[in-house]
Amino acid sequence: MNDLITNGTEIKQRIISEINNAKQLIYIAMAWFTDRDIAMAIIEAKNRDLTIDIILSSNVQNETVKLMLKGAGINVHAFETGDTRGIMHHKFCLIDNRLTINGSYNYSINASFNNVENVQVSDDFRIYSQFLSEFERLRYNIDHNIGVNTTSSSSITSQEVKTEQPQPINIIEAFSQQLHNLVYSAAQINTEEYKKKGYEKSKDNNGNIEIFRTEYDHIKEEIKTYATDESLGSKKNILISNISNAFESMKTNLETEKQEKITIEKRNSDLETRQIKDKISELKKEKSIIESGNQSTGEKGLLQINKEIEKNKLERRSLEQSFVIKKFWTIGTVLILIALGVFVFYLSIFFASAIYKVFFEGNAIMTSLQAGINPGIPQLVDANAIINIFKQQGTLFGIIAALFFLIPVLLSNLKILGSENKLLNNLMFWVGLLIFDVVVSSMVAINTDEIKSLLAGQKSTMQIWEVVKHGEFYLIFTFGMFPLILTHFLVDYVVKAYKKSKPEMVDAEKNKNIQFLDEEMLELNILKESLSNRIKENETLVNENNSKILNLETEINNYENQIDNKYADLQKKTKIIFDEFNTKITSGKIFTDVIFDSIITAYKSGFIEHLPKYYATDEVAVRVREIEQILI
Fold it and tell me: For the residues 145-149, what does the mean pLDDT come to?
């Protein structure tokens, strides 16, 4: 329920209706309280034995209603009029530990008929609990002369939901009031008659305080005779029986209420524990799926991943063992490499000598002849040709001459450069070995004939096709061809030995499979790490939820101990009250005390009720304080 009312008349009717329907208690905090209709509804509730506490602001306009309420025996908490410690500006009412009425509405005639007001009527326990906490803070501050805006560490605060209702003090007060009412009903005193008498006396004597004092003494003497009434014996027996029954009933009610609280709390705790256990069950099921996989969805678990990792390792090991790998560095390979080095050195000198003869030797001989020196016929192959080229033509030509042999070597071994075309490789082999060597041999033969003619003072007449008639052609061809052929086979042997020492070259398909397995292994390890982390997170959540269950068990045990201690204390206090009443009943003193308190309270209420009709508010307050002094 959450009703919002904005009509002043309807607000007043609703407030009075809720007060009339109250069964246990009424707490009110009100800034301005001048509406006597609401005040009378509260007084009638008090007469129904409800627990009532009122907090009023330090406002002079509240004095009349305050006196009415106090006259009816209602607890009113308020600073004295004009107190400067702060204004209590609340407007709320709490009923039966369930209902909250709060808003802008003051309990005044203006609020009902003249002002635009609002109240909210709610049965939300959270709202009730917050207002109850504020009410108890204010009541404590007022009773201990602390400013209304001060939050004292000693002030009474609302307990948590577990220990909220009912408040222990109210149970004790209610039991005491119950016993009091049993005594009061046994006395059979008509307090309304004394209230009317007080009103008439006040009216006839203009609220004279001395008249009140005289009547007070007279009433006191009048009821002393009641203690000697011979009819008290039977009343005592009946009354002792009644309060004994009330005491036993209170013990039973307290025990029942205690068990209800524990049962409710256990039920809530069991519900929360069951929810946590369901969560733990879900987490364990999820962990099982992570570990073993999900057959319905085909999702792989850690178990399957580990099996695949082992399978991957076995396949890779099997492939590695299937390779036939030969060592590259063997005695035969070393000897071949030495022989290859020798042939490379020889070919470098041989082809450098050919370049020197073709391009530079004729000029050198011409220069010598011009200088009058006949150098004679040069050697067919000059070992110093590279040195001469470096000296005469420079470093660039020297390097070109030294590396010129690579052209026929590379042409005859094209496949080492990556060529897989067999036709092209065979063609280039013969180009490198035959054609290239024929061209070089022909040029050397022609150049040799020119040098001989030059030394003889003649001009060479040899044609290109005539080179085959000269021995130089065959010598160069032979000394160039065979080393190139041997070099080709030496290079081929070294390349094959190298390839046989490398797995990726021995069997490319198997090596490709190994690379695939390595990539698969990387993915499997990543997935394994991810699943392992999920399992760790899952185990952490399970441990956290198990800790929550242990905490709940500890909390419920602590709560049971608190409840046991609380209700044991209540049982003890009710026993003390029962014993006090029993003693007073046995002695007869209870009758005179109860009768006197009831009669004088009713008389005082009637006497005070007339004062506002004759005196101003300030004077009413003064006379009420004088009356209170008489009663002390």
Answer: 69
Smallest Cα–Cα separation from 92: which of 58, 127, 49, 43?
Answer: 127
Model confidence at 165: pLDDT above 60 = no
- CA 393, distance to chain mean position in Å, is 83
Specify the range with the lowest mean pLDDT, choosing from 67-71, 309-313, 449-453, 535-539.
449-453
Task: Output the pLDDT for position 161.
Answer: 35
- Return the pLDDT at 164: 39
**Per-residue DSSP letter, 431:** I
Give the mean pLDDT of 511-534: 89
Which SS3 state, helix, strand or coil, does residue 352 take?
helix
Round to whole Å and give the CA distance between 497 and 475.
33
Say yes or no to pLDDT of 94 above 90.
yes
Structure token digits, residue 221: 């003497």
Strands (E), 96-155: 99-103, 119-122
3-class SS string, 283-336: HHHHHHHHHHCECCCCECCHHHHHHHHHHHHHHHHHHHHHCCCCCCCCHHHHHH
In 415-507, alpha helices (H): 422-430, 436-456, 471-500, 503-506
Looking at the predicted structure, is the pLDDT value of residue 265 above 90? no
Alpha-helix residue ranges (DSSP H) falling in 33-80: 36-47, 63-71
Distant-in-sequence, close-in-space partners of 430: CB < 8 Å, separation ≥ 6: none
- Separation CA 203–CA 196 (nearest Å): 10
Question: How many angstroms separate the CA atoms of 179 and 585, rounded?
Answer: 11
> What is d(CA 463, CA 450) in angstroms, rounded to the nearest whole number?
11
How many distinct helices (H) and strands (E) make up the chain? 22, 7
Residues with Cβ within 8 Å of 604's Cβ and at least 6 positions away in sequence, in order, are 71, 198, 212, 627, 631
Q: How confident is the model at residue 163 (pLDDT cuts 50, 70, 90)?
A: very low
**Where do we find the tokens 């009100």?**
30
| Cβ–Cβ under 8 Å, residues 249 and 182 | no
Token pair for 309:
């990792």
Distance (Å) of CA 251 to CA 172, 566, 567, 573, 575: 12, 13, 9, 11, 9
Q: Taking residues 156-167, report their average pLDDT.
A: 38
Check residue 107 and report its DSSP letter: B
Query: Does the pTM exceed 0.90?
Result: no
**Is the Cβ–Cβ distance between 348 and 434 less than 8 Å?**
no
By the 8 A CB rule, do 24 and 97 touch?
A: yes
Token pair belonging to 1: 């329920």
**Spatial contact of 460 and 449, defined as CB atoms under 8 Å apart:** yes
Examine residue 166 and say whether the peptide bond preceding it is cis (omega within 30 degrees of 0): yes
Of 408, 427, 432, 428, which is closest to residue 351 (Cα–Cα)? 408
Nearest to 385 by CA among 417, 337, 347: 347
What is the rounded distance in angstroms from the CA atom of residue 399 to the CA atom of residue 410?
17
The C-alpha angle with vertex 281 and arms to 280 and 284, in degrees rounded to 5, equals 85
Residue 42 vs residue 98, higher pLDDT: 42
Q: Which residues have C-beta within 8 Å of that of residue 222, sequence separation ≥ 6?
A: none
Locate 550 and state its tokens. Answer: 């242990």
Predicted pLDDT at 162: 37
Using pLDDT thresholds of 50, 70 and 90, give the confidence band for residue 166: very low
Eight-class DSSP state of 104: S
- Residue position matching structure tokens 């220990």: 163
Predicted pLDDT of residue 158? 36
Sheet holding 25-30, edge to edge: 2-5, 119-122, 99-103, 91-95, 25-30, 51-56, 75-77
